[in-house]
Amino acid sequence: xxxxxxxxxxxxxxxxxxxxxxxxxxxxxxxxxxxxxxxxxxxxxxxxxxxxxxxxxxxxxxxxxxxxxxxxxxxxxxxxxxxxxxxxxxxxxxxxxxxxxxxxxxxxxxxxxxxxxxxxxxxxxxxxxxxxxxxxxxxxxxxxxxxxxxxxxxxxxxxxxxxxxxxxxxxxxxxxxxxxxxxxxxxxxxxxxxxxxxxxxxxxxxxxxxxxxxxxxxxxxxxxxx
Amino acid sequence: xxxxxxxxxxxxxxxxxxxxxxxxxxxxxxxxxxxxxxxxxxxxxxxxxxxxxxxxxxxxxxxxxxxxxxxxxxxxxxxxxxxxxxxxxxxxxxxxxxxxxxxxxxxxxxxxxxxxxxxxxxxxxxxxxxxxxxxxxxxxxxxxxxxxxxxxxxxxxxxxxxxxxxxxxxxxxxxxxxxxxxxxxxxxxxxxxxxxxxxxxxxxxxxxxxxxxxxxxxxxxxxxxxxxxxxxxxxxxxxxx
Lengths: 226, 241
What we know:
The complex is a heterodimer.
Chain A: H1 2-21, H2 23-42, H3 49-80, H4 84-90, H5 95-124, H6 136-159, H7 164-192, H8 198-224
Helix pairs in contact in A: 1-5, 2-3, 2-5, 3-5, 3-6, 3-7, 5-6, 5-8, 6-7, 6-8, 7-8
Chain B: H1 8-32, H2 46-55, H3 59-73, H4 78-114, H5 122-143, H6 149-174, H7 193-239
């Protein structure tokens, strides 16, 4: 099982770097907190609880998406220093282990932000979900994986272009549109209690499976090609 | 690099035939076809909207084929790989043109009939996302440095091709307001069919011509690049680097 060992080695390396610097977690946390504040300027969540329930699912994911995007770019650009990426390219391990390790690390970081952000959202927007809240325990990880998996892949892809910070959102957002739709609809269904999130959850599982496979298959091309 | 080009007279013949078919399509759409019962003359926009919007679904497959071709031949047959890549970029740009025409004509029709320029229904959203996907494809090609453009673009093209059916399904679950499929739904009066078919043929021929021109242009650009880098190398040799 050397494949798993390589993935774990990459994961541990990324976790250790993050543990020492805590750059991306702190950046993401503060960024998403700012997003919560800025969105509260757009509407009054306390006076309109129904409106708050209808739109905060979307706001939560948009905030997380933007926060994740800042971290995704960093997670690859730190590999450029001292030509670490070139060393990865020469390494005899499969290229997709590097991708999986990094995607898992980013997944853990963004999940950490969610654990802090979800209660903050509930408090600041005065949210009383009307549906079954335990569904969120499925929706949040599945949605996060959909964002982070494609995000890590396209951040690596934009690393090889001129305007890398600019290109990531331009490429990631259109590809993620179906996943974003599914997670926002599922979250809104839980918050408003109007419908069942089951259909959207299944959609998310399908999206995750398809795109994880595609990323693993194609990552070698992105990393090794010159 | 050897060149194989289509004989000039054939190109002219094709262009003349295209314009003749388009002219007949125009005559059918504007003068022959009767005004629609409820929508009146506004309906005639459909003779341009339906062909362009339906034809827009073809070049993405050509783009995907070109991208696969590039990835398949990139190490074994560079000449073929370059040709496939030229085909991919040509197809992507034709997709953009056709979806743009489809979106604009659709909005022109929606304003008088629905009373709004835009609504977030199934087909409109899907088309907008299709348009956005290929805009991002073209942008990626613009922004990436020359050596890696082909591979990165081919990878994105595969992602886009996988994404399109998923987007289509998920938006269908979401909502629907667009009139059903026009040709297969059996809602169209027989008197209007000639206008639709002439226009599909005309715009199809036009798209094929534009695709070929863009392909030829990209091939010439590739050859110019190759000549330039050869000259650069020769200059370096002459100076003794």
